[in-house]
Structure formats: structure tokens, C-alpha cells
Amino acid sequence: MTAPKTPPRASAKLPRGLIDRGPAALAATDKMLATIKASYELYGFEAVETPFIEYTEALGKFLPDLDRPNEGVFSFKDDDEQWLSLRYDLTAPLARYVAEHFDQLPKPYRSYRAGYVFRNEKPGPGRFRQFMQFDADTVGAASVAADAEICMMAAQTLEKLGIKRGDYLIKVNNRKVLDGVMEAIGLGGDENAGRRLTVLRAIDKFDRLGHEGVSLLLGAGRKDESGDFTKGAGLDATQIAQVFALLEAGGKDNAETVARFAEVFASTPRGQEGTAELKTIAELVEAAGFADRIRIDPAVVRGLEYYTGPVFEAELTFEVQDDEGRPIRFGSVGGGGRYDGLVGRFRGEDVPATGFSIGVSRLFSALTAIKSPIVTSSMQRGPVVVLVLDKDHVARYQGFVTALREAGIRSELYLGSSGMNAQLKYADKRGSLCGIIQGSNERDHADGPQVTIRDLALGAELAASSKDRADYLELRAKAQFAVPESELVAAVREVLARHG
To answer: Which of 59, 96, 428, 442 is the most buried (most CB within 10 A)?
Structure first.
């Protein structure tokens, strides 16, 4: 008789572009989200939630038109042969929601939402297939005052999260200004959409590649350090010079930048319109005292096709060092802009809208690097662990756990099968501050049943210290001591209070 084949062992391997997160990261993220939520609500925004899955056609014109539209998004067919996709961002689903409930919603409609989004793209450093965003949007307000307010809120939110003033900038540009450049170099019209996108991607790399690198990308193309070649936009020298007239128009302040824009776009109506909107934003942020944090920057592009007016990015300007002493700069941790046509895709008429999105995962990494209190104060300790030394007395140990929980103290009964030392090591791995021990000696004590309280944090400190310390005996007495069973809760509270 042939023995049954053993099925192959599954590989415990996480797919590329995804991450697991432990309790400390989750606790810190929750605190981040609560801080962002409070900041958005201060500005009058209210919560809404949209699902992870939308009809693919609802996600926007920036998706490729393929038989199976799976480039950029994760897609599948429903049982009615309709294409569905995991959401690419939180803005397109909001546009669908507003259009579907348009008559019931107040206008302007101010909402925020947080959640995971999914990108079916090649993963790499800092590029994930699943990551969290936290958005705020105003729908139904045509005035650029709505854009200026979003930028101010973004600045204040970063500061509440622990980013110091001077360590970030909210950079603002206008897609109409960029459209004016395209008109000036002869790349207007639908037939030039592909080349326009190539030009915009080149402009977006100006901060990183500088004049020479962007010139190559605007021209024939560029070979990077790895030897990979990126085909350029094919512009001639005159056209490239016109693009750099925009990129190098930044002045010492917003007023000077707007004045230079007015000169560059004197002959292009679209560029003039965008310049006028930037001038208004500059005046509003100046009046509100935000001019030092919100700056007009000609290199800001934003990649998605649905932006129609002001666009903005939140950029961290500080540097930190990695474990090998190399400098790290986090760059953009959020962005957004005006998208007056996105809701109109569902209604047949444009509906003005503007919004901002924080990249929660990237910002979390930055807050960790600067040791923001949002992160460092969220590192939650493990529960108090009640050890099980005698199997015949599990019910008694369970009573200790119940008493602690009724007092509001996180606690657990050890449910494994190891001995005392292994149980204490388990408590250490859990990050516990306190362990509860009762063996026959404590249970049969002459003065009545007792429990031993082990201060695990103080015990670790004691183990690393010298017995020559003057306070060694005092520390040892505090690190482990016995109390009557009736004083268990009070003694545990005392230990926990030592460590804040």
C-alpha cells in the first residue's frame, strides 16, 4: 500500500510591498490618527467611510484602458461580469459618494476619512502595495480660499504631530500654471497627453536631479546610476528653456514668485489664470500668519491626472541619519489639490472640490526618526502576568486575574506549560512590568495566604547594576516582595506607578 504523500509545506513569506505591524506600531498609529482627526475636526470636517472596493470605472480617467485594467490597481470581475478594483486612493471613492448622495449632503461638504489604499505597482524602498492615507476634502467651494484653508490645516496638523516649525514646508503650485507652460511649448491638446505627462514627471524630479538631470529628461532621455535609461520628452532647446523659465521663477517670498510667474505667463491665458489664483492664496496665507510655512513652489506637480487647479505637497525639510550614519531625508509626506472635474464624471457637470491627503505610513517613519512624543509615548507595556506554578490551583490564579481586571489593570493568566523561569521570560518578552507568583510557600504562609510581586522592570535594572551600589538592598526589596492576597491590587498599582 502506497503511503499518502505529505503535502508541501507552505512558505511563511510576506509578499513584497507589504509589511506586518506589531502592537507598538499599532498603538502609535492609533495615536497619530486620533491627533489628525482632532485637527481636521477643529476645522469643521466630519467623518465618512467608503469601502475598499469600487467599480473600476468609478476610480478615474487616470487608469489605463485595457481589457483587464490591472495596471496600477488590483482588479477582478464580479459575478455580473463588472470590473471591480481595490481603491487606488481615497479621493475617487469620495467623488462617487458625493455624486451618489449629492442632494442630501450640505454644500460645501467638508469630510475626512482614513483607510488603506492599494497600488498594483512594482514595490521598492518606501513604495508599498498597501498603505494608509488620511484625507480631508471640501466639495462644493469654488473659491481658492478653500485651497488656502486646506494648506493651513495641513501645516497645523504636522505641528500637532510633533514636526517643528521650520522642519517642514507646505509647497503650492497650480496645474493651470503648468498647463500654461504646455501651451507655450506647443504641447496642448489631447494628442500630446503622453508627452505632457513625461514633461510633468521630469519637472517633479527637479528637487532631486537638478537642472542637468531634468534637462536630459526633457530632451532625449537620461541614464541613471544603475545604467537604466529613461526616455525623455523629446523637447528642443527652446522648449526646455521655457520649462526652466517656470522652474527657476521661485523668489525669496511668495509675492516675488507670483510676480515672476506673471512675467513668464504674460502671453498664456491659462497661465495667467493660475497665477491669479496663486496670488490670492499667497495673500490669504500672509494674512493668516502662515507665509513662513506655506510657500509657492514652481516644481510642485502632483502625479494624478484629475487635478485642475492649485496643487500642494507637505515636505519635511530636516535630515536624520540611519544606523550607518548616512543622511536620510523623508521629503513629501502628503499632498493634494483641486479636482473640479472628478465629481462631475458622475453628474455631467463640474463640481468644485479640493483636498489633502497625509501618507500615514511615511509620516510614521519620520515621527519615529525624530522621536516624536506621538510615537514614543504610545509604546504600550504588556499586561501583568499571573504565573501558574501549581496546576491544581489554576482556579485560585484565575481569581487573581479577575480581581486585577475588575480594577482596570491589564492582566493575563499564563496558559502555557513551562516552569517558573520560562514564565518570567515570557512576561519579559511581552513587555510586562509586573509578574504575580504564588507557590505553596506563599499559599501556606503562617500569617495567611500571600502573593509575591515581581517588579520585572526594576529586576532587569538590578541585574545590570553592581552590588556595590549603596541602594542595592533597597532596590532588591522593591524588585520582589510579598503581600497578603487581599492587598494584591494595591501592590500591583504601586509597581505600575513606579514606571509611569
So the answer is: 59
- Kindly tell me the burial class for residue 194, based on how many C-beta atoms sit within 10 Å of its own C-beta (0-12, 13-18, 19 or more): exposed
Q: Hey, CA dihedral for 119, 120, 122, 124, is it positive or negative?
A: positive
Answer yes or no: is 133 a known binding residue: yes
Which three cell numbers, joined as nine digits, stand for 162?
510633533
Residues in the chain: 500
- How many CB atoms sit inside 10 A of residue 403's CB? 17
Residue 280 among known ligand-binding residues: no
Domains, the chain: 23-376 (3.30.930.10), 384-498 (3.40.50.800)
More confident residue, 306 or 235: 235
For 143, list phi and psi in degrees, rounded to 5. -70, 140
| Predicted confidence (pLDDT) at residue 466 exceeds the cutoff of 90 | no
Is residue 116 part of an annotated ligand binding site? no
Instruction: Check whether 90 is labelled as a binding-site residue.
Output: yes
Contact 313, 332 (CB under 8 A): yes
Percentage of the chain exceeding pLDDT 90: 52
Residue 137 marked in a binding site: yes
| Per-residue pLDDT tens over the stretch 375-396 | 876 666 889 999 999 999 999 9
| 471 annotated as ligand-binding | no
pLDDT digits (tens, 9 = 90+) for 273-316: 999 999 999 999 999 999 999 999 998 988 677 889 999 999 99
- Cell triple for 19: 509589511
Q: Which residues of 334-345 are buried (b: 16+ CB within 10 A; e: fewer)?
A: bbbbbbbbbbbb
With bands split at pLDDT 50, 70 and 90, how would you rate the model's confidence at 459? confident
**Would the annotation count 396 as a binding residue?**
no
Q: Is 109 helix (H, G, I), strand (E, B) or coil?
A: strand
Whether 187 and 196 have beta carbons less than 8 Å apart is answered as yes
